[in-house]
């Protein structure tokens, strides 16, 4: 008897596909007894059905009785084994230096690649193209054509130019705004990480500048930046008026500006969404002064940064390969101490996350060990999510993970039951907290802004009702 495993996303009741075909696109046969079909998003909650000829049973829970969690891991492991050769090569190259065995494995993978343009596109999307090009130049595989080398080189030059532009903007921001106004700050991730831990900072792909500033200093920074020609990006309609800036600072955790040179700058009030893992005042107290090329800037200490990137990137399933390179680069730096990292992780309550991240790093270093049999439960679930994320399939493939529904974590093993419960209460209360969109639709002076607490619930109800109507119409169109 042939069974079919189908995961559907629903809000009130499951909506199953009309027919299931073993040869349908996106399906994969696992041991000829199980078929994974791409899910359709109709909401947030999950439902799993086991369909046999002539009958169908559904369980509104994570795992049906006939499938254990272990067997689901076996299914997801088989799904992950379908990574194409180009992705396997890029994952192997996502480190600053290659061992002899890694070089041999990389050359073997190169021999199986026929479309190097596709490899270039994937490397650019996963933010490792300059590093991959550097490794491939050293390896000199015979399968790559001159056209492929030329295309990759042109893309690399464009990316490196953009990276240098972002680094220059960070220096300009520090020199022209932060220093004159005596604003305490700390750069983290991005250009500051590349300058400190990379031998060649330009090969580290950067998309924006991440800047942490205490909330009481955000007003002066935003006011000065807008006067110097920076444009508000998020919130989009933030104006020069003091009231508008004050509302944005009060309601937004992250505000985004675009510099006159077109560089995106994310201004953070907190390092984490709740502000409990990394209180801003403690982060400001522990920061370190980094001096590179005559320029100075404040950055996170190495142990705190390592723990932070493990937490942040795990929340996003390590979906960009340059994050793996960061993990590799920091471990090679003289300031890195694993004992210091573990002490910091214990203090932050992030030891399991750091251990799983290191297991992920070591597992991906050896392409031949992708059967995952040597990994623990936490690292296995993280690696399953990683394999799906790097393929860009988060929305059309089932991810074998437990979702705790908290803003800081993506897996239940990262947190506790009490934290998950408090996060749910906090998320429910956030629905009634006024946002910048309330001010944008109805600008009020500060003394009258308490009215937003009255109008906010109605705005939320209207918004959710319109979303439900749109989803219902979309489902009807898809089924027609």
Number of helices: 18
**Mean model confidence by pLDDT:** 80
Structural class: alpha+beta
* Dominant shape: globular
Helical content, roughly?
40-55%
SSE order? EEEEEHHHHHHEHEHEHEEHEEHHHHHHHH
Describe the structure.
By secondary structure, this protein is of the alpha+beta class. Among the domains are: 4-67, no CATH class; 301-430, no CATH class; 432-479. The two termini are 31 Å apart. The strands form three sheets. It has a five-stranded mixed β-sheet, covered by helices on one side. Strands 6-7-10-9-8 form a five-stranded mixed β-sheet, with helices on both faces. Mean pLDDT is 80; it is low at 1-80 and 396-401. It has 18 helices and twelve strands. Helix 8 packs across helix 9 (242-251). It holds the Pfam family NTP_transf_5. This is Nucleotidyltransferase family protein.
């Amino acid at each position: 008897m042939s069974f079919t495993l189908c995961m559907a996303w629903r809000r009130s009741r499951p909506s199953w596909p009309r027919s299931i075909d073993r040869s349908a696109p996106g399906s994969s046969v696992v041991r000829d007894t199980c078929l994974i079909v791409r899910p359709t998003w109709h909401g947030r909650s999950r439902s799993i059905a086991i369909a046999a000829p002539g009958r169908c049973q559904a369980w509104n829970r994570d795992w049906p009785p006939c499938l254990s969690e272990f067997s689901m891991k076996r299914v997801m492991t088989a799904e992950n084994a379908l990574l194409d050769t180009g992705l396997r090569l890029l994952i192997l190259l996502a480190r600053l230096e290659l061992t002899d065995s890694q070089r041999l494995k990389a050359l073997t993978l190169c021999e199986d690649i026929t479309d190097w343009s596709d490899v270039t596109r994937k490397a650019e999307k996963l933010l490792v193209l300059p590093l991959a090009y550097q490794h491939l130049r050293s390896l000199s595989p015979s399968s790559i054509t001159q056209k492929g080398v030329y295309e990759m080189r042109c893309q690399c030059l464009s990316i490196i130019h953009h990276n240098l532009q972002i680094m220059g903007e960070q220096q300009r921001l520090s020199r022209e705004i932060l220093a004159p106004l005596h604003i305490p700050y700390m750069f983290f991730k991005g250009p500051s990480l590349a300058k400190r831990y990379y031998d060649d900072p330009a090969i580290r792909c950067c998309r924006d500048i991440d800047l942490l500033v205490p909330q009481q200093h955000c007003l002066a920074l935003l006011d000065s930046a807008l006067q110097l020609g920076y444009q508000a990006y998020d919130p989009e309609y933030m104006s020069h008026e003091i009231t508008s800036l004050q509302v944005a600072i009060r309601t937004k955790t992250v505000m985004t500006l675009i510099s006159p040179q077109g560089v995106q700058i994310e201004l953070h009030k907190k390092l984490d969404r709740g502000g409990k893992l990394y209180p801003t005042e403690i982060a400001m107290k522990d920061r370190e002064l980094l001096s590179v090329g005559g320029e100075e800037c404040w950055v996170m200490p190495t142990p705190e940064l390592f723990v932070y990137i493990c937490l942040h990137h795990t929340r996003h399933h390590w979906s960009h390969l340059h994050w793996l390179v960061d993990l590799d680069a920091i471990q090679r730096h003289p300031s890195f101490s694993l004992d210091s990292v573990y002490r910091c992780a214990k203090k932050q309550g992030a030891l399991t996350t750091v251990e799983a991240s290191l297991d992920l790093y070591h597992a991906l270093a050896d392409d031949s060990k992708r059967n995952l049999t040597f990994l623990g439960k936490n690292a296995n679930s993280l690696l399953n999510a990683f394999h799906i994320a790097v393929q860009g399939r988060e929305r059309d493939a089932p991810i074998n993970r437990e979702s705790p529904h908290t803003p800081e974590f993506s897996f239940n093993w990262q947190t506790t039951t009490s934290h998950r419960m408090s996060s749910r209460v906090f998320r429910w209360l956030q629905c009634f907290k006024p946002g910048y969109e309330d001010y944008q639709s109805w600008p009020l002076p500060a003394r009258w802004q308490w009215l937003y607490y009255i109008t906010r619930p109605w705005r939320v109800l209207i918004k959710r009702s319109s979303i439900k109507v749109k989803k219902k119409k979309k489902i009807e169109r898809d089924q027609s």
